[in-house]
Write a structure and sequence with these properties.
Length: about 260
Amino acid sequence: MTKPLSIGFPSGLFGEEALRLDILQQGDGWFAISKPVQIPFDDHPWQNGETHLIGAIRSQLEMGKPEIVRLGLQEPASAFGPEPEVSGVAVIADRARTLAAWRDALGSFQLQFTYTLIAKNEDAPTEGGVCDLSIGMDDTRGRAFISNHRGKQAETDFIGGEVFNGWRQWTAKTRYPRRDQIRIHAHECGIKIAGELNYERTGRITLADTVRRGRINKGEDHPLHRCLLLHLQKVEGVVDGKPFEIEAPLPTDFATVLKRLRKGA
């Protein structure tokens, strides 16, 4: 039985247009996709019952949709995946056969998650470093908070990258990404991610940021992206004794902004 290279969802489920997602990798009892921004991966109290990908995949399996059946999962479940505002690698595993192995690897810090982001250079640290502030969850406000007493252990390693006109690309790495961990740790370190509206009011990268001063006319400036420029680019590690590495390409908005910033630097 040939496994599909992508899976699709009808128009009206996750937006006005139909959605099709490429399968990045797949194995016996699991597969990985690149989750788009503004789409929930799994159910969560902060999402107020919004439709999520895991639920949609289960529904299609129950209806016998051939491409979902061919994936070979009896009960699709979330091994891990980024928050709705963040794009990138997400892994779906069969609850009966492989989910426990993925979650054991996550819980024993055998996985490494590598994010890429773009942040304002103004007032940002000149060098990277490790942020190990403990993180708690406020379900009433729907956001994370820093607390030594009520929080759980969290550690993010920030590595500075290319510098552009007022912006900089950063890499963030962690072994166990708690919800909103990269965003709140970045905020605490003075790294203001483009498009952040919850932990900062950073604003978006505009056309004027990507050209030399005086190259655009008044009124021509406009934002180059709609969403948070934070992407889970790679996950690697060992699951059930087998090494793996999964990479997700940058979303179109993110890739376009990066290309323009490099061209205008």
